[in-house]
Amino acid sequence: MRTETSLREAPGSTWARSYDYTARELVRPRSVEDVRDLVLREPRLRALGSRHSFTDLADTSGVLVSLEGLSGPPTLDGDVVRVPGGMRYGELAAWLQQRGRALPNLASLPHISVAGAVATGTHGSGVGNGSLATSVTALEIVDGRGDLVRVETGSPDFAGAVVGIGALGIVTHLELLTSPTYQIAQTVHEGLTYVDLREHLTEILAAAYSVSIFTRWGDEPDGSVGRVWVKSRSTTPKIPGTVLATEPRHVVPGLDPAPCTEQLGVPGPWHERLPHFRLEFQPSVGAELQSEYLVPLERAQEAVDAVRSLADRVQPLLQVGEIRAVAADELWLSPAYGTDTLALHFTWNADPVGVGALLPDLEQRLPEGTRPHWGKLFAAPDPGATFPRWDDFKDLVRRFDPDRRFWNAWLARVLG
């Protein structure tokens, strides 16, 4: 076995301090060979991304493996960029922009790692935009045997491995399809009423390249229910019943808008407008919890009415909610598998008891076919009922990790 160059430290907590990791230690390997050595030596380990989850999803009884120190910059070969798994999207986006390239979409936070976001099905918004994972053309994974396995488009395991929730191994590199760079202008539309939200929901979500509706689900003092953030590649659309904001806004009403990306319709590079937050600032609010549910788009009105019916319980716990659209894909564990979806996101106060008591009731009221975001809080989904390829994925886990090196308490609860 080669001489190890990994760095070791205490494991710490998630970015919002919602969960303290119980792993024995955190290791930062410097090379793929270091990762392979760790897998061969450790009976239990788990890949840790940029800590932008809220649960024990990435925890282990053994060793956490951070890829932040994995050496090597991205490389561009035609339209495809090869990326170290631990690289953050904000850093990758700036690197691509310098070379005249772009990704089709970005999540709200540019702070998240590429491997972690892909593994959990993380997404941005837009009725024509798939999740971040839909840009992936290949993965390089150190599996449970310590082998470096390449899985690429067209291979039998590809659709099951991309959104892999960390169960198949440690993703050291990914390859993503890029496009020529483009400009985006962002505007905020205020005064949305619940009547317009419900009656024009799909129209609003399809009004521009990327659209987010921010709401606290109950009526505000002015009679509105929220604001619409529009990210357009062309003319700014009209949103029913709203007026354009004349000053920059934060996604949480009343907070300083400085951490948010530029608004007021000023065009700029894609990577400086598609996220809601700037890379150089603290992501989101900080002290918070998050949940998100993805509902078949055809049942959007039913889902909105379900949350609205709980507004008196949701509002006291909520900092802000967000409604987005995500295009269908064919990735087995993607929450958008096989269907266009409505994404209902909740940024909660840091109240685990209150949120924990609400989530079962909220999930019970949401339409059949609702799926959770894997990296956020949820109560009791039935993956076997909502993910048609669930049993196939479990077979894939057995093949990639026969000794359950990457198994943890979260997987035991979810996979069964």
Automatic annotation (TrEMBL):
<protein>
    <submittedName>
        <fullName>Sorbitol oxidase</fullName>
    </submittedName>
</protein>
<dbReference type="GO" id="GO:0071949">
    <property type="term" value="F:FAD binding"/>
</dbReference>
<dbReference type="InterPro" id="IPR010031">
    <property type="entry name" value="FAD_lactone_oxidase-like"/>
</dbReference>
<dbReference type="GO" id="GO:0080049">
    <property type="term" value="F:L-gulono-1,4-lactone dehydrogenase activity"/>
</dbReference>
<feature type="domain" description="FAD-binding PCMH-type">
    <location>
        <begin position="19"/>
        <end position="181"/>
    </location>
</feature>
<keyword id="KW-0560">Oxidoreductase</keyword>
<dbReference type="GO" id="GO:0003885">
    <property type="term" value="F:D-arabinono-1,4-lactone oxidase activity"/>
</dbReference>
<dbReference type="InterPro" id="IPR016166">
    <property type="entry name" value="FAD-bd_PCMH"/>
</dbReference>
<dbReference type="GO" id="GO:0016020">
    <property type="term" value="C:membrane"/>
</dbReference>
<dbReference type="InterPro" id="IPR016167">
    <property type="entry name" value="FAD-bd_PCMH_sub1"/>
</dbReference>
<dbReference type="Pfam" id="PF04030">
    <property type="entry name" value="ALO"/>
</dbReference>
<dbReference type="InterPro" id="IPR036318">
    <property type="entry name" value="FAD-bd_PCMH-like_sf"/>
</dbReference>
<dbReference type="InterPro" id="IPR006094">
    <property type="entry name" value="Oxid_FAD_bind_N"/>
</dbReference>
<dbReference type="InterPro" id="IPR007173">
    <property type="entry name" value="ALO_C"/>
</dbReference>
<dbReference type="InterPro" id="IPR016169">
    <property type="entry name" value="FAD-bd_PCMH_sub2"/>
</dbReference>
<dbReference type="Pfam" id="PF01565">
    <property type="entry name" value="FAD_binding_4"/>
</dbReference>
<dbReference type="InterPro" id="IPR016171">
    <property type="entry name" value="Vanillyl_alc_oxidase_C-sub2"/>
</dbReference>
